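Before the break, one more example. Copy the sequence into your notebook; we will annotate it together after we see the structure.
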Amino acid sequence: MSNEALRRNLSGSITTAFRKVEKTLGVWLWVLVFAILFSLVSPYFLGLLNFLNIARQASIIGLMAIGMTLVIITGGIDLSVGSVVSLVSAVFGVVWRSTNNLWAAVIVAFLTGAACGGFNGALISWVGVPAFIATFGMMGIGSGLAFALTAGSIGDFPQKFEFLGNGIVLGLPVPVFIVLLFALLFHYVLRKTVYGGRVLAIGGSELSSRLAGMNVKRYTFSVYLINGCLAGLAAIILCARIRSSYPGIGQDLELDVVAASVIGGANLMGGYGSIIGAIGGGFFISMIQNIFNLLGVYPFMQKVITGIFIVIAVLANQVKAGRKKQ
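Here is what the structure looks like once it is written out:
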């Protein structure tokens, strides 16, 4: 066998092996690769305190990416999650300041997130408003109401509440355990239950699902409701993490969440998505933002790079879909 033939066989074997590893690990392979590269760029990247900061931020994005992945699987999109986080944060702060009751603030804030998700779901499912338009409208409503409730930050939360965002258990931040719990729950729901199967079916073909007797409107409504609930929970954790409530806290967060879902394998055309991949996507986005902060890169460039990664992820999904059809 010639040297050229040997090189071709070796190259083919390496490519095949890499694809098998990538198929098994998904975005987590790229998390590992980029973590090694970033550690070479900055000696502080793999420091303990820096890792804990990345984990906390990734938990917030990952928790929201779980709900966004369910929405994207059905062929929808939610552009309002950042504004919902801002509104929930403002509601939490105002209720706390008015009642001095932590549980009342948590419950009302969480229900606010659920109400926003339910409102989106109702408009999309029963009124027939396109998801882009409905959630774009909620983006403006949520942001406006947040600043109408309070123009500044509200703090002085109890120390026990701050533990939710900054506490450490078994060497890991508390939010990591929260996102892992929901990730395992919804991974099971999506892959092992009738509900998950029907959500995937709706994304694959809404018409076929309707003809098969599924209540498409109810299932579509439910994923937006879940998305709103998880956004509300993320907002509460974020308030605990930064020790204050601020009406602009969720600004531009929707881009990070969509990016995490898509990079994690969710197909923007619907029909497929990965909960575990979404968590990996959240970790990937948080790592990029962190290394940029360490290197002093301007924040607006971070959004540019995030947008580029979304485009690359969408193209990669299309290539994979093309391979499956062949």
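The domain at 26-325 is CATH 1.10.3470 (ABC transporter involved in vitamin B12 uptake, BtuC). The first strand starts at residue 168 and ends at 169. Try to locate both features in your own notes.
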